Amino acid sequence: MSTTYRFSLGPWNIHPGADPFGPPVRPPVSFDDVLCAAIDLGFAAVQFHDDDAVPALEDLPPAAIVREAREMRKRLDDRGLVPEFVAPRLWENTHGIDGGYTSNCSKARTWAIERSKRAVDVALALGCDLIVMWPAREGTNVRESKNPIEASRQMLLAIDAILSAAPNVRIAIEPKPNEPVDHAFVPTIGHALALGARSSDPARVGVLIETAHAILAGLDPADEMGFALAAGKLWSVHLNDQNGLKFDQDKVFGAANLRGAFDQVRVLELAGYAETGRFIGFDVKAQRTQRAGAATAHLATSKRIFEMLVAKVRSFPTKAAAECIANRDYESLERLVLEHLLAA
């Protein structure tokens, strides 16, 4: 069993710098440049939206989708990279304007499920079996616009439809409490695990936890990870940071709360996450002020901070901590943690 972590990135990690208040400030980055960056940064895997792998997905028949996905797999193979997962990108299509799986339009719901099945085709052709479900617009801006009872049933129907697309496909649900909608129907890991438990094959439904999403729900990311790990359901992570209950900031891992980052690494270490071979992803974005030539620094920094915190967790004075805990001397334990984090 390896105790060395493996890392993954997505093409959205290296972007031109547009935000809701301004246009791009850097030139677009080709997918080949993303793959080169992954290699240069020491990342082993690539995360995909379905249309990252097959850009004209909506306009192609199933056989052509599979053919193009296999061509993408060859591009990965040629560079010694592997795919981590595929996520159906429903939120940027006009069919998903009111959500896909929970839309008030039955045709839109059908579209969302069919597109998700095509994402399964893409994943299998790429050589991976993991589908990430981020229910981005599955919620409401006006609470009375949807029936939450029916919406829960619709989410479950979508999960079962994806599971039925292939006998070996797995789903990792990535919850988020808000943004782009005001209130999401699957806001926390508890909701995601409850949905998975009600699915047609609970063994094939797990979760992906993003640091910022947990913080936006007012929860501690390390505790959310612990909850999922205890159930054997943490199948991927998106580590980043978040400065309070604001918009999803996707800050460098550890940038806002270094101790919180330490605790996330600690719980992954307690679970032997590295030994599972699963990946560490960083859902971080380059600052808008960053010049194009240095627009991967946020990824390099996040990876470096993670690795430094792994060393901190592994060198933590566990015997002294155990004595503090046995004596219920939590003030001394707190000092122990702080001094350890500040020590050179």
Overview of this protein structure:
The structure is a single chain. The protein has about 350 residues and is an alpha/beta fold. The chain has one domain (about 5-315): TIM Barrel, CATH 3.20.20. The chain contains twelve helices and ten strands. It has helices at about 30-40, 50-55, 60-80, 105-125, 150-165, 190-195, 210-215, 220-230, 260-270, 295-315, 320-325, 330-340; strands at about 5-10, 45-50, 80-85, 130-135, 140, 170-175, 185, 205-210, 235-240, 280. It has an eight-stranded parallel beta sheet with strand order 3-2-1-10-9-8-6-4. The chain has a two-stranded antiparallel ribbon with strand order 5-7. Helix 8 packs parallel to helix 9 and helix 11 (about 320-325) packs antiparallel against helix 12. The longest helix is centred in the middle third of the chain and has 21 residues, at about 105-125. The protein is globular. The model has no long low-confidence stretch (mean pLDDT about 95).
Which CATH first-tier class would you pick?
Alpha Beta
Q: Give the terminus-to-terminus CA distance.
A: 30 Å
State the helix count. Answer: 12
Secondary structure tally: strands:
10
